Amino acid sequence: MPTITLPNNWQPRPYQQRLWSYLEGGGKRAVAIAHRRWGKDDLALHWSAVSAMQRPATLWHMLPQISQGRRAIWAAVNPHTGKRRIDEAFPQAIRASTNENEMFIRFKNGSTWTVTGSDAYDSLVGSPPAGIVFSEWSRANPSSWAYLAPILVENNGWALFITTPLGNNHAKSMYTMGRNDPKWFAEVSTVADTNAISFDDVEAQRKEYAALFGQVTGDALIEQEYYCSFDSVIPGSYYAKEMTICERERRICEVDVDRALPVHSAWDLGVSDATAIWCFQVNGHELQTVDYYEASGHGAQHYCEWLNERGYHGVDWVPHDAKVREFGTGRSRVETLRMLGRKPRVIPAHSLQDGINAARLTIPIVRFDAARCARGIDCLKSYQAEWDEALRTFKKTPLHDWASHGADAFRYLSLAWRLPIADDIELSGIERLRQDMARPRTYNDLWRQHYQEQIDAGLEPESDNDALFNLSDPDNTLNMD
To answer: Of 16, 18, 108, 252, which residue has the fewest beta carbons closer than 10 angstroms?
Structure first.
């Protein structure tokens, strides 16, 4: 039987040695910010092979989206050797089986390795991981680490975060944290540090970027991709400029909840994916976001309990489609929220572009609580247009990824915060109708108005024993005088 030495026919490059030595020495947490073609995934694959042989364990290589995994990792070919990278890192001699469809390898010692995605981190089943590579971490869902970190602690597992920057988002925050924690490895490697790519090659790439995106964006991409700048604007980002100014003006800060004012909420209601909620207060023309919450896999009661526990009672602004009745219950989500003691209001229908423009106008006047709204702030920074690979341009539609839920909820906040809040919000529909009857109009006029308001709100129209008329007959005008 042949002897296999791992890593298999591979050794770290000089500039990769520090990270490799940290992992070999038993290090458990590492964040490596490195330029394109540094060899991040290559190092991670070979480390996974070594780790898999040290003890039987479950290992994951996690991309931002599972759909990226087959092209970027599973089927990727080393252009220098013509071999698949997984075959170089995991030689057949150490494998028991390989499942091409599921991108899964089982080793002869019982360890397993699979390619997965952070877009479905909470739905992964099977053995809990003891080692995870978070590839392209700056583009991944940061909640995946919050969910998986306790599992790795319990399993005495390791986590390796490898990425190039994507603006000033959670990847920078993690690097800053890791640099100040002696238990972590944290390093930034630019082309100036490694000399792995020649200056001429970088400048040739600059010209290509400029041709695609324009000179300003092209230069920003070079700074980001090759010089690891966290300050470059994310190409296609909707709110990068506004959020950069917000940080410069120190409006991302500590914001106290004013208990003398109601705390309203703006919801992006998920069904099969996340629900996001921004909590905000309005004092005259001043707007401040005091909290943000996002979760998935829960019913409306969970989110209402979260709001109630924090004493956040105000109007709950929900999107227009919340009026649609759900097949299972026959009730709309507006009705469900009312039954749970909340005060939902439907945001008027609008185009996506109008909502984005409203958000662009709103961000410059908002004060964000840095701690409680951290996740939502990352969503706003990372929200971007979808890239059309065939046409080599950005589409007019947003990329639907982890950032879109928080950005959508903020879009609803931007449309709602200036809308008037009725003083009689505590009153039922019938009570408001009876108060309105004091006006000199016919009862039928009032009832038709009330009936239509109930339909517009997605509610089952209320009945009243005093409503002795035919709604379908416009001439039925029983006067209350």
So the answer is: 108
Give the amino acid at 74: W
Residue 473 has a pLDDT of 42
Intra-chain end-to-end CA distance of the chain, in Å: 102
Does residue 471 register a pLDDT over 50?
no
Cα–Cα distances in angstroms (integers) from residue 312 to residues 263, 304, 415, in the given order: 5, 9, 20
Assign domain 14-194 to its CATH architecture: 3-Layer(aba) Sandwich (3.40)
3-state secondary structure of 357: helix
Confidence of residue 480 (pLDDT cuts 50, 70, 90): very low
Task: Please tell me the number of Cα atoms within 13 Å of 364 on its side-chain side.
Answer: 7
* Predicted model pTM: 0.69
Residues present in the chain in total: 481
Residue 95 CA, distance from chain mean position: 36
* Architecture per CATH, 252-416: 2-Layer Sandwich (3.30)
Judged on CB neighbours under 10 Å (0-12, 13-18, 19+), 310 is middle
Which pair of tokens denotes residue 480?
A: 């209350």
Two tokens at 276? Answer: 């996001």
How many CA atoms, within 13 angstroms, populate the side-chain half-sphere of residue 161?
Answer: 29
Q: Which residues contact 79 (CB under 8 A, 6 or more apart)?
A: none
Nearest to 44 by CA among 128, 144, 115: 115
The pLDDT tens digits for 198-230 are 999 999 999 998 888 788 788 888 999 999 998
